[in-house]
Amino acid sequence: MTLDREAAFIASVPTGLLIGGQWRDASDGGTFDVHDPATGEVLATLASATSEDALAALDAADKAQAAWARTAPRERAEILRRAFDLVTERAEDFALLMTLEMGKPLAEARGEVAYGAEFLRWFSEETVRDYGRYLTTPEGRNKILVQKKPVGPCLLITPWNFPLAMATRKVAPAVAAGCTMVLKPAKLTPLTAQLFAKTMLDAGLPTGVLNVVASSSAAGISGPLLADSRLRKVSFTGSTPVGKRLMADAAQNVLRTSMELGGNAPFIVFEDADLDAAVEGAMAAKMRNMGEACTAANRFLVQESVAAEFTRKFAAAMGALTTGRGTEPDTTVGPLIDAGARDDVHALVTAAVDAGATAVTGGSPVDGPGYFYRPTVLANVPNDAAILGQEIFGPVAPVTTFGTEEDAIRLANATEYGLASYLYSRDFNRLLRVAEQIEFGMVGFNAGVISNAAAPFGGVKQSGLGREGGTEGIAEYTTTQYIGIADPWAAKEGRKS
Description:
The chain contains 16 helices and 22 strands. It has helices at 3-11, 51-70, 73-89, 91-102, 106-126, 165-177, 191-202, 218-226, 240-251, 275-287, 304-319, 339-354, 405-413, 428-437, 472-475, 490-493, and strands at residues 17-19, 22-24, 31-35, 42-47, 133-136, 143-150, 154-157, 181-184, 210-212, 233-237, 256-260, 265-269, 297-303, 358-361, 376-379, 396-402, 417-418, 420-424, 442-445, 460-461, 464-465, 478-485.
């Protein structure tokens, strides 16, 4: 695709705020720019929502809530299924848009389209399976009726790293449950959410059910919405510090919260592992999205007897990758999201090397335009190095060693985070033993990619609370109501209930 065709395509994407089914400018006329991280150039200029616009979006969601909650589950399901079909038909458009605004290679962007679309299909199927129950009390005198109801208007805040999948993972279960929404996409990558919102309208989603307020001011959107008693839930994916602030604000109105926060995933390789398979899994777990993923392997813990061989093979695979703009056919590693992200990654690498680590491959930014960083493997990383204690969010793999199974468990748990983890061993009993002892919400057995729409995604400790996907995903958007029913046989049999 030529640059002219790219520009023409970008121009076809809505740039306004979606409020009550209408695309409109910000109330104060404000705008913000979206940049291509491969070049630093401006891709598009979007309306920047104000606090007034955020409340207008909540007005629209609140007005639509009652009718939407009464909409038949099958009708909601069919809308989601049509949305799945439309996203699939428009896969190349979504993939190109994500590559341009986020940087990932087209092949990866196509993978995200398939992954993101699957939430629409999965929850279209779950919509009609949100069961309640009817039963007799234990003493046999009365009846219990339990029903699930939509929690109400929701604020959905999505991150920049998976612009489509993070939107579908939140919007789809909200639609399935009968909730209306205000979606706040990340200011770095809002274009994909704009196209997705248009697609949801094309699929027949009623006016006001989904409202989208992109903005250069996250606090200007979340603050007034969280303070408004009409809002009943907030779902956030992003950093732990921001999640904590949102939870504190949400507590004032006792809002339902779903928080998918930071990660520090250990990738543990035991001496009996298939090392070639472990390297393949390490590449998938580390380099998906250029390492800019909360599930990315952040620490490679390798048993001492195989550490040298694993590191050599891993470094060879990382060194063979090609950095470049995601639209180029040979590119396997795109840019980081902005200059600050690249500088933060390099600072961690520099500090690790200063502390005694060795850069086996990579270890520096790429000269020229854009925010590229060379795929990097660090060996001999001290266990107290800063790079092992925080999310790297880049194409850097620090390798450290352990002696025993107990050592591996201790090192894996030596973090405040608990999202994803990866274990490689041929001994299934060992895998089960370790999984029971490590403090992570998700564990991969000899697998480097474990996210799936049918699985409950989420973490423990400071990686958040709640689950997205799976049968658990829709429960995050419902509330349980119990109705006690007087004994229906009492009058017939002439006795007191």
